[in-house]
Structure formats: structure tokens, C-alpha cells
Write a structure and sequence with these properties.
288 residues; alpha/beta; eight-stranded mixed beta barrel; 11 helices; 10 strands; globular; binds ligand C2E; binds magnesium ion; Diguanylate cyclase
């Protein structure tokens, strides 16, 4: 039909677009209900001190247990939630849940929470964070906020002020996925941040053909600027050995240590690795 004048093609694309729009609309409706229906869950992935082998921090990673689709990845959730303006409510839930969960862990272990650009740039982000600490009882030094380079792009002066105030509060700021996106080395000394997480793309092939030069360079520079350096996405012992060799990298994260795991399993893991069991009443103090 209508091939000659191209109408067939046009109709095809229009139908496909309509289907995409419809799928998106359904996703948005489902997302709105998901918060109320308690379909979201936080998994946690440890960050390990490379010298001591101890878990220093666990990063909260969002999962959506969709009644029909099964587990939906945060990569598919966060951008849609940002577009819908739902990220503030969702982010609030994530932050509070993560802080409450951290209260069940041994004192020496912190929690890391990812903030999307819109969430980070919401008007009352400081009161959001202060409130989450207050209601959970978590000391500020046990909270780490992970932001990406895209959060540093806009409204530079305001961003700088927020970061300074968070630092004054005692919360750590960690620059996530460093080396992807709009990477600029100047971010590392222009903004008050305490940690840098070097993206796992820097690890690709380093245990076989690719030289370590780039990874080492970024790690050394960050360390020289007084930042604590994390390498994410460590999957093999070879990678771990290469990264640990010169002592610049302080922490590692990746499947080699642990995949992201449910809250209950993190509690078991932490209590075992910290060589003590928590009394049961302490575990159930905050219901999850
Ligand atoms: P991210 O913050 O950089 O988190 C690391 C991602 O890499 C996680 O994927 C983790 O499962 C994965 N990963 C960890 N170790 C390895 C490894 O050794 N190999 C490989 N191949 N992958 C590894 P996940 O959980 O699917 O999250 C993806 C991204 O979604 C996160 O990247 C973060 O940007 C975003 N995200 C997740 N949870 C949240 C959240 O609560 N809020 C916001 N704003 N973003 C979130
Ligand atoms: Mg992260
Ligand atoms: Mg990361
Ligand atoms: Mg990443």
C-alpha cells in the first residue's frame, strides 16, 4: 500500500511512535502507583577498603519489583521519574530508607545514596538531607551522597554553595562515574568533594591489553587533590592486583567483592564481616 508516495513508511513510523508514546504513558502510570504500592526496593553493594579488606560503605541501588515486568533497572526508572517530576518524591523515599537501613549496620559502615541532577538541584535539598538524618537518627558522617558530573554543569555558584554546606554538615560528597560524560578535570578542584569514583569503563581490558596509564593518572591526580579514590566495576583478581599495586586507590567496588544484594543479606554480611552479631531487637528496631 502507498509505497510509491511514501505514505506506507510514514504510517509505519507514526504507528510505532504511537506505540512508544503509549508504552511510556503506561510506564508513567505504573511508576506513580509503584511508590504507594511499595514496589520499590533498595539493594546494596559494598565498597571495600583495599588495604584492610573491610567494608567501609554500602551503596543503595534502586530496584523496582514490577508486578508484571519483574525487576526493572534503575537506568529505565530514573530518567522517566525525572521527566515526570516524580524524582523528588522517589528520591526522598530512597534517601530516608537508605539512612534507616544504615542505622542497622555496625557503626563503622556508611551508606552511599545516588542523587540525580534534578534531585540534587531541588530547591530545599539541604533540608531534605537534614530531615532524613534527623528522622533516621543517622550521624551525618555516615552518609555519602553520590552525584555525577552532570550535576555540576548547571548553576555553578549555587552548586558550589550546596556542596560546601553539605560538607559543613559532615556529609561526604562522592563524584560518581568519573571519566564519562562531560568529564572535566577542573571539577575535581573547583568543587568541594571528598571522593571520586572512577568509572568502570577505565577497567576495560587493563588485565589483558590496555595499559593502566589512564586509570593511574586519574587516580593519582585525584589523590593529590586530597580526594579519596574509588574504582568501580572490579570483576577479576587481576584487575584488583593491578589497581592495588601503588596504593593510590583506597576503595574498590564490583562483582568481585559482591553484587548488589537485598537489605537482609547486607545485614548478615556486615555482621559476619565485622565479627559480631547484632542483637535481634536492634535489627528489628526500624521496620523495613
Ligand atoms: P552507579 O551509581 O554507577 O552504580 C553502579 C552500577 O554498576 C550498578 O548498576 C551496579 O549494579 C553496577 N555494577 C557494580 N559492580 C559492577 C561490576 O563489577 N560489573 C558490572 N558490569 N557492573 C557493576 P545498577 O544498580 O543497575 O544501577 C545503574 C545506575 O542507575 C547507577 O549507576 C545509578 O546511576 C542509577 N541509580 C541506581 N539507583 C539509583 C537511585 O537510588 N537514585 C538515582 N538517582 N540513581 C540510581
Ligand atoms: Mg553510584
Ligand atoms: Mg558509579
Ligand atoms: Mg556507573
Amino acid at each position: 500500500r502507498a509505497k510509491a508516495d511514501g505514505r506506507g513508511t510514514y504510517c509505519f513510523f507514526r504507528d510505532e511512535m504511537a506505540a512508544t508514546v503509549e508504552a511510556r504513558r503506561i510506564l508513567e502510570l505504573d511508576l506513580r502507583k509503584a511508590l504507594a504500592n511499595e514496589e520499590f526496593e533498595l539493594f546494596y553493594q559494598p565498597l571495600v577498603n583495599l588495604k584492610s579488606g573491610k567494608i567501609t560503605t554500602c551503596e543503595a541501588l534502586l530496584r523496582w519489583n514490577h508486578p508484571v515486568r519483574g525487576t526493572v533497572s534503575p537506568v529505565d526508572i530514573i530518567p522517566v521519574a525525572e521527566d515526570m517530576g516524580l524524582i523528588v518524591d522517589l528520591g526522598r523515599w530512597i534517601l530516608r530508607r537508605a539512612c534507616m537501613e544504615c542505622m542497622k549496620w555496625p557503626d563503622g559502615v556508611s551508606v552511599a545514596v545516588n542523587f540525580s541532577p534534578q534531585q540534587f538541584h531541588q530547591r530545599d535539598v539541604l533540608s531534605e538531607i537534614r530531615y532524613a538524618l534527623e528522622v533516621s537518627g543517622l550521624p551525618a558522617h555516615r552518609l555519602e551522597i553520590e552525584i555525577t558530573e552532570s550535576s555540576l554543569l548547571r548553576n555553578t555558584q549555587l552548586t558550589h554553595d550546596i556542596l560546601s554546606q553539605l560538607h559543613a554538615l559532615g556529609v561526604r560528597i562522592s563524584l560518581d562515574d568519573f571519566g564519562t560524560g562531560y568529564s572535566s578535570l577542573s571539577y575535581l578542584h573547583n568543587f568541594p568533594m571528598q571522593k571520586v569514583k572512577i568509572d568502570r569503563s577505565f577497567l576495560e581490558g587493563i588485565d589483558t591489553d590496555r595499559p593502566l596509564t589512564l586509570l593511574r593518572g586519574v587516580a593519582r591526580l585525584s589523590a593529590d587533590l586530597g580526594m579519596s579514590v574509588v574504582v568501580e566495576g572490579i570483576e577479576t583478581n587481576e584487575q584488583l592486583a593491578l589497581i592495588s599495586a601503588d596504593g593510590t586507590v583506597s576503595e574498590g567496588q564490583g562483582y568481585l567483592f559482591s553484587r548488589p544484594i537485598p537489605a537482609v543479606r547486607v545485614r548478615q554480611l556486615l555482621n559476619a564481616s565485622h565479627g559480631r552479631r547484632m542483637p535481634d531487637d536492634q535489627i528489628t528496631l526500624v521496620s523495613s
